[in-house]
Amino acid sequence: MIVVANTLSAVALVLGSLLSLYFWIVIIAALLTWVRPDPYNPIVRALRTMTEPVFYRVRKWLPFTYSSGMDFSPVVVLLAIELFNRIVVASLAQYAMTLH
């Protein structure tokens, strides 16, 4: 049973770390929209590749996130990441602790 607990704890830790990393990627991508970076820059292209599919789905499901030239899809994504992190990852970590 200890192996299952350690595995769940490791999964929660890795998932939390990945969500935190993506949280910062979304913030950087949103901040880059305020300036006009070179679209051919490899870093800008990588950020767009990682974030634009998620932003597109949010805009498609919640069309009110883009209004008056303002795109609020990064805010929705950040809220979703934080909710997932606080509900799913925290529950998984807590469940792993009860198995010890």
User: How many domains is the backbone divided into?
Assistant: 1
**H and E string:** HHEEH
**Helical content band:** over 70%
Distance between the termini: 8 Å
Looking across the biggest beta sheet, what order are the strands in? 1-2
Total helices: the number is 3
| Oligomer type | single chain
- Number of E-type strands: 2
By helix and strand content, what is the structural category? mainly alpha
Determine the strand fraction and express it as a percent band. under 5%
Q: Which blocks of ≥5 consecutive residues have pLDDT under 50?
A: none
Evaluate the radius of gyration. 17 Å
Structural shape: elongated
The biggest sheet amounts to: 2 strands, antiparallel
Average pLDDT score = 94
Describe this structure in words.
This protein is mostly helical and 100 residues long. It has one domain. It is 78% helix and 4% strand. It contains three helices and two strands. Strands 1-2 form a two-stranded antiparallel ribbon. A hairpin with a 2-residue loop joins strand 1 and strand 2. The N and C termini lie close together (8 Å). The relative contact order is 0.19.
